[in-house]
Design brief:
By secondary structure, this protein is α+β, with helices and mostly antiparallel strands. Helices cover 35% and strands 14% of the residues. The protein has 13 helices and ten strands. The strands form two sheets. The chain has an eight-stranded antiparallel sheet. The chain has a two-stranded antiparallel sheet with strand order 6-7. A hairpin with a 3-residue loop joins β6 and β7. The structure holds adenosine-5'-diphosphate (ADP) and magnesium ion (MG). The site of adenosine-5'-diphosphate has 17 residues, from β1, β5 and β8.
Length: 370
């Protein structure tokens, strides 16, 4: 397969069977309107759709070459965004993380029988910087040095150390990845979409000694801020993340790219708005074996991934279940939607495994209403 021009790429996707959001929303007319446009960073339509045309099994199939791509190529991005996030108009409210001292989430699974760990992450981009397809080596290096400055400002529980990937042994990288802390350079969807260009320059990971707060630098996004811990205390996990974001905004020169309609801008259109993904690793053998499993998750606006992350195989009966929507709602609304969804998953699993009536069943505390 020798694909060179943007026409070659689009023709391949156009003539193939694919359920990607790119394929579903691109038309000949849109293609013609956009194919010769360029962003300030010289980003092209090909930069955005290459991965999705090479990998016909892509989910989204389109990434932003740089923050401006969302506007320059809005003819395709906006339909994809509406379709993915299931919104009629593309708009996003101001950030609202809720009153973090009065969340009342409670513990999702006090019995500890189903949920083994909980994680909340957001993606962020440095305003005015290109994304992978248009980034030059000096951009990656500059971004990393700004990140290091911001990371040094953390205090208390958030304090930690930055480890550049270029200085980390492959054994250590593998170990951190298997423990669910680090990313690997193994995802063909990301690889074909330029995410691994000039790897490992500018890439690294920061974490506190307990590994409950982590930051990925220059992986898919400029920044991924991650809070996680064993068990199901989502309230503690969420609060830690919010405090970390406040620290970056208040104590460093990093400025997050933000769009009036799209919220926080990141590389993937599935990950705009709040960019928040709140997940649990959850053991649900009974529900997972039901034919209606995926429909059930969809109904509750949940997404399922393999236990080793996006695009990984399902292993055993433990799944990564998280909110699917990230745009058009505030952070606190999205987390509450995820809680309601996980509550439904747990109740269904208990109904199926026969434990619903037992006194040690999962109970939800606090106020989870939106
Ligand atoms: P992201 O949306 O943050 O990019 P990925 O699907 O790429 O997430 O997964 C990144 C890593 O995070 C993987 O190792 C995955 O197993 C881990 N992970 C995700 N959710 C949880 C969780 N609730 N508990 C522990 N690890 C998790
Ligand atoms: Mg990822």
């Amino acid at each position: 397969m020798s694909l060179k021009s943007v026409e070659d790429h689009w023709n391949r996707l156009k003539n193939a069977s694919s359920t990607s959001f790119l394929k579903r929303n691109m038309t000949e007319l849109i293609f013609k309107e956009l194919k010769d446009k360029r962003t300030f960073f010289n980003g092209t339509l090909l930069d955005c759709i290459k991965g999705g045309c090479v990998n016909l099994d892509s989910g989204c199939g389109i990434y932003a070459s740089d923050p401006e791509a969302y506007d320059v190529f809005s003819g395709i991005f906006f339909p994809v965004i509406k379709d993915y996030h299931k919104v009629g108009t593309v708009s996003h409210p101001n950030p609202d993380f809720g009153d973090i001292d009065n969340l009342g989430f409670g513990d999702l699974d006090p019995s500890g029988r189903y949920i083994s760990s909980t994680r909340v992450r957001v993606g962020r981009s440095q305003a005015g910087f290109p994304f992978h397809p248009t980034a030059k080596l000096h951009d990656r290096v500059e971004l990393e040095s700004r990140a290091m400055e911001a990371l040094q400002a953390f205090s208390g529980e958030l304090e930690g150390t930055y480890y550049p990937l270029s200085e980390m042994s492959s054994t250590k990288q593998k170990e951190l990845t298997e423990e669910h802390y680090l990313f690997l350079q193994e995802n063909r969807f990301l690889g074909d979409a330029h995410v691994y260009d000039e790897w490992p320059v500018g890439r690294g990971i920061f974490y506190n000694p307990d590994k409950t707060f982590l930051v990925w630098v220059n992986e898919e996004d400029h920044f991924r801020f991650i809070s996680m811990q064993q068990g199901s205390d989502l309230e503690a996990v969420y609060k830690r993340l919010v405090l970390a974001l406040r620290s970056v905004e208040e104590k460093s020169s990093v400025k997050f790219a933000h769009h009036p309609q799209l919220g926080y801008l990141t590389y993937c259109p599935s990950n705009l708005g709040t960019t928040l993904r709140a997940s649990v690793h959850i053991n649900i053998p009974c529900l997972a074996s039901q034919p209606y499993f995926h429909e059930f998750l969809e109904k509750h606006h949940l997404q399922v991934r393999g236990v080793n992350g996006v695009h990984t195989e399902m292993v055993g009966d433990v799944y990564d279940i998280s909110n699917k929507r990230r745009l058009g709602m505030t952070e606190i609304q999205i987390v509450r939607e995820m809680i309601v969804g996980v509550q439904a998953v747990l109740a269904e699993e208990q109904r199926l495994d026969g434990s619903l009536t037992k006194s040690d069943g999962v109970q939800f505390e606090g106020n989870i209403a939106a």
